[in-house]
Design a protein that fits this description.
Layout (H helix, E strand, L loop, with lengths): L1 H16 L17 H9 L7 E4 L5 E7 L5 E5 L2 E9 L3 E5 L5 E2 L8 E9 L5 E7 L5 E7 L10 E5 L2 E7 L10 E8 L2 E7 L7 E4 L10 E9 L2 E16 L2 E9 L7 E6 L7 E3 L2 E4 L2 E3 L4 E4 L10 E8 L8 E8 L10 E2 L11 E8 L6 E7 L8 E9 L10 E2 L5 E2 L19 E4 L4 E7 L6 E7 L1 E2 L2 E4 L3 E2 L4 E8 L2 E2 L5 E7 L7 E6 L5 E2 L4 E10 L5 E10 L6 E10 L1 E8 L7 E3 L2 E3 L3 E6 L3 E6 L3 E3 L2 E8 L6 E5 L4 E16 L5 E2 L3 E4 L4 E5 L3 E4 L2 E11 L15 E4 L5 E9 L3 E5 L7 E2 L10 E8 L3 E8 L5 E10 L2 E8 L6 E8 L4 E8 L2
Parallel strand pairs: 36-44, 45-53, 53-60
Antiparallel strand pairs: 1-2, 2-33, 3-4, 4-5, 5-6, 7-8, 8-9, 9-10, 11-12, 12-13, 13-14, 15-16, 16-17, 17-18, 19-20, 20-21, 22-23, 23-24, 24-25, 26-27, 27-28, 28-29, 28-30, 31-32, 32-33, 34-38, 35-37, 37-42, 39-41, 39-43, 40-42, 43-44, 45-48, 46-47, 46-49, 49-52, 50-51, 51-53, 53-55, 54-56, ...
Length: 827
């Protein structure tokens, strides 16, 4: 399956990009994916197993995998457990029960991103995606089973950037109409509609006030004196003007999107964050003050109210920090209320709040808003997802709630987004039912485009098992607690089930005292787990689900019980490096094994383990057993094989007169190495030890060339190499035994020379003689003599084959004589 997907994506990539692009894909007036990232996304898509990421307090973020940012989400109004979300470029996820998520991407012609979704009132799902190697518009695909299968795609609208979609979910005269918007280019926008459940689309409106991304559409009732038409108004907002002083133009249609009239134009938004390359930027994340609109379709007191949510710097101006604001209109967009700041942090000018998404619940009229927020980060470079809602028509909002279980760095350099400011997605989404909402966002906490969802309002859920080890005809108890909530005030109901019934015997579940729900928070229930008869030994998982009164939110916790069996956790203190055996099978990571009680298990530590210059040597098991041992299982065990770390000393020597090399030594423990003799003769040649040159962190290097450090005591924290330096002293020739009357250093001959010359010197007494050669900077380049010599006349040869041309000096020194002469090397 993976191979087929990769081949399909590769063919798609070649089709899309083989002939090149004519559009400027990083034009600041468009909110497309940067071209190089679009290319990558067609080939590279990493998905991971669904994971529930639970905070220490018991709140869940649901990790769907790694996609390519920019998600949108919709809920089936006929089944509020069914949700569908789509990420760039064409990465979809759906759930049928609010817990388990699956993927089934439709086949779209040349998908180019900006996925948006909508449900109609009878359970048809519509998924919209841009198309074309140079974007020419959008296709829409329909599903009648929440994305488990798809109808063929239908071309829905023409344009070149930032599309949106909405459905009429009412029972009015335009019920189940599908409405689409898109930036068309040259200052125009596009609007189209489908009146036949997405079979065909017709373009009906092309406003000339749309040159910035952010053309949106929503549906509301037409209410007035003696008038109440469900779905009677289709609203369109366009985004027009310059990047940092945009105007919002509000249009309305009262005939199902056939014709439109302008209600008003407003200049509400300005800078969002900082201007970078003619884009809005928050901590190097590109963004924009999109005009998000929603209408109240409920039959509550604010029915028909039109809402606008956007981000804007406060105070205004480039480089300040943005807040999220709400305005509302009670006359179909003609006039608007004063703005209401939604974020309630104590010092909003010190924090970024931006990237909003909205949904107005059609049953209750509750207006939900989610956004990104840096209030928990003093440096403002990391953020959380926050959310709130208004139950009084946008006049005020309830206390903000943190949704993410962990904040994340905004400027994610490893996520794969490019450009300056960086592309990290342009929007996300939230949807709701009468009790709660489900939101979706792109999360960078792991250094990638993580796809996450979470409920709000929500409750926390924790479990504590009193005794998870059971026998036949036994009972165990688990406490399931709701320790807190995020503005959740409904009932919580609990159900429990066994993953797989045992082959023999039975496992029954019941809540103590019949209490399987709570009405106040915090509170808890207790689950009794009972075995009857001879139950098949092994591990059994108990699923405990907690739901609200309408089935949402929904959370699950797994409780593992061991019946006539015990878990045994086995590993090493060198995870991933050292191996151990369990019943003859090797492992190098900690694993939990389930063994029947009374069974015998053979375990063994494998030693030594050599990895390059590092060696791991077994020392002991945590139960003080032998290297290889047999244990009888009677209870849960945690066993660890301990290894010490050793590092290898490598000695390199041309003479081979060394000791201590080629051995692994304990880390941070002193050891000794060296040469056996400072003077060593072999093959008619005599050599004198001159010191060590070390390689590797913490290696030893001699401070000089005296060679007195022939034996060294050292410690290692990693593998090192020590090279012994030797000098051939056979080249010193005694050319006369006659004792000179005085010291004398003669001029070298020949001079200039290339590359060999000879140096003669007279020594009237037995002395330690040194003759060193220096370059013109005074740096020693070689030592010719460093020996005790008898009185006489000597000659030593200098071979300068390894030196560059130039002027050099050679110096003879004893304890009471020094002489320096110049020599010239010409090559």
């Amino acid at each position: 399956m993976i191979k087929k997907l990769l081949i399909g994506n590769l063919l798609l990539f070649l089709f899309l990009f083989g002939t090149g692009y004519t559009q400027n894909w990083d034009d600041p007036n468009f909110d497309r994916i940067p071209l190089e990232l679009l290319r990558q996304s067609q080939i590279l898509h990493s998905s991971k197993e669904i994971q529930i990421v639970t905070s220490p307090e018991g709140y869940d973020n649901i990790f769907l995998g790694v996609d390519f940012a920019e998600p949108h989400m919709s809920m089936n109004p006929l089944n509020i457990l069914q949700h569908f979300t789509a990420f760039n470029i064409n990465a979809t996820h759906y759930t049928m029960n609010g817990l388990d998520w699956f993927s089934n991407n439709p086949n779209l012609p040349s998908p180019a991103g900006d996925p948006v979704t909508a449900y109609d009132s009878i359970g048809n799902l519509y998924y919209m995606n841009m198309t074309g190697s140079t974007i020419i518009g959008c296709y829409v695909v329909k599903s009648t089973d929440n994305g488990q299968s798809w109808f063929p795609p239908v071309f829905a609208i023409s344009g070149n950037d930032k599309n949106w979609i909405a459905c009429d979910q009412t029972g009015g005269p335009y019920a189940n109409y599908v409405y689409c918007t898109m930036t068309a280019g040259s200052g125009y926008g596009s609007f189209s509609r489908s009146t036949n459940f997405g079979t065909t689309f017709q373009a009906t409106f092309s406003p000339n006030t749309q040159n910035l991304p952010g053309m949106m559409v929503c549906v509301g009732p037409r209410v007035g004196p003696g008038t109440d038409i469900p779905g009677g108004v289709v609203y369109v907002v366009t985004n027009y003007g310059s990047t940092f002083t945009p105007y919002y133009y509000f249009y309305k249609s009262t005939d199902g999107g056939l014709t439109f009239n302008l209600s008003s134009n407003q200049q509400f938004a300005g800078y969002v964050g900082t201007a970078v390359n003619n884009r809005h930027s928050v901590e190097n994340m590109r963004t924009r003050p999109y005009p998000f609109i929603a209408a109240d379709n409920s039959y509550g007191p604010y029915r028909g109210r039109l809402y606008l949510i956007y981000a804007d710097n406060d105070p205004p101006g480039n480089g300040n920090k943005p807040d999220v604001f709400c305005r509302y209109s009670t006359d179909q967009g003609v006039t608007w209320s004063t703005r209401v700041r939604i974020n309630d942090d104590a010092n909003p000018q010190a924090n970024h709040q931006w990237f909003p998404a909205i949904w107005c619940d059609k049953e209750t009229g509750r207006l939900y808003v989610k956004w990104l927020d840096t209030r928990n980060c003093p440096t403002s470079d990391s953020c959380d997802v926050y959310a709130s809602y208004s139950d009084n028509g946008g006049v005020s909002f309830v206390a903000n709630q943190r949704i993410t279980t962990r904040h994340f760095k905004i400027d994610c350099s490893t996520c794969g987004g490019g450009g300056t400011p960086r592309y990290l997605g342009d929007y996300d989404a939230i949807t709701s039912n009468s009790k709660t909402s489900l939101m979706v966002w792109t999360d960078y906490r792991a250094g990638n485009f993580g796809s996450y969802v979470a409920w709000f309002p929500d409750f926390a859920m924790t479990t504590r098992t009193i005794d998870s080890i059971m026998l036949n005809n036994d009972s165990a108890f688990a406490v399931i607690k709701v320790p807190g909530s995020k503005l959740y005030n409904d009932i919580v109901r609990f159900t429990a089930a066994v993953d797989t019934a045992p082959a023999t015997g039975s496992i029954s579940l019941s809540f103590v005292n019949g209490k399987d729900s709570i009405t106040t928070i915090p509170d808890s229930v207790t689950l009794r787990i009972k075995t009857t008869g001879t139950v098949t030994p092994g591990q059994h998982t108990i699923y405990v689900d907690a739901t609200g009164s309408n089935g949402t939110p929904v959370h699950r916790r797994n409780i593992d019980v061991y019946i006539n069996a015990s878990p045994v956790s086995i590993g090493t203190n060198r995870e991933g490096f050292c191996y151990y055996e369990v019943n003859g099978i090797q492992h190098n990571t900690r694993k939990t094994f389930i063994f029947n009680n009374g069974s015998s298990v053979n375990i063994k530590a494998i030693s030594p383990r050599v990895l390059g210059g590092t060696q791991y040597v077994y020392t002991n098991w945590s139960n003080n057993g032998d290297t290889a041992q047999t244990i009888t299982i009677t209870e849960p065990l945690i066993l660890t094989a301990f290894y010490k770390t050793q590092f290898k000393l490598t000695i390199v020597s041309s003479i081979g007169n060394t000791f201590g090399g080629g051995i692994f030594y304990d880390s941070a423990v002193a050891f000794t190495f060296g040469v056996n003799s400072r003077i060593y003769s072999t093959g008619g040649q005599t050599y004198q030890f001159r010191g060590w040159t070390g390689a590797g962190t913490g290696a030893y290097t001699s401070p000089d060339s005296s060679g007195t450090d022939s034996v060294i005591t050292h410690i290692m924290h990693n593998a090192i190499v020590e090279t012994a330096r030797w000098q051939n002293i056979t080249g010193i020739t005694n050319i006369s035994t006659e004792i000179p009357k005085e010291y004398k250093l003669s001029q070298n001959y020949p001079n200039p020379f290339n590359p060999v010359t000879r140096i003669r010197f007279d020594l009237p007494f037995k002395k330690l003689v040194k003759i060193n050669v220096y370059d013109i900077t005074g740096k020693e380049v070689t030592c010719l003599v460093n020996n005790f010599l008898e009185p006489g006349t000597y000659e030593v040869m200098l071979n300068a084959a390894g030196l560059p041309s130039g002027v050099y000096f050679y110096k003879m020194s004893t304890d009471n004589y020094t002489s320096i002469k110049k020599l010239i090397l010409i090559k």
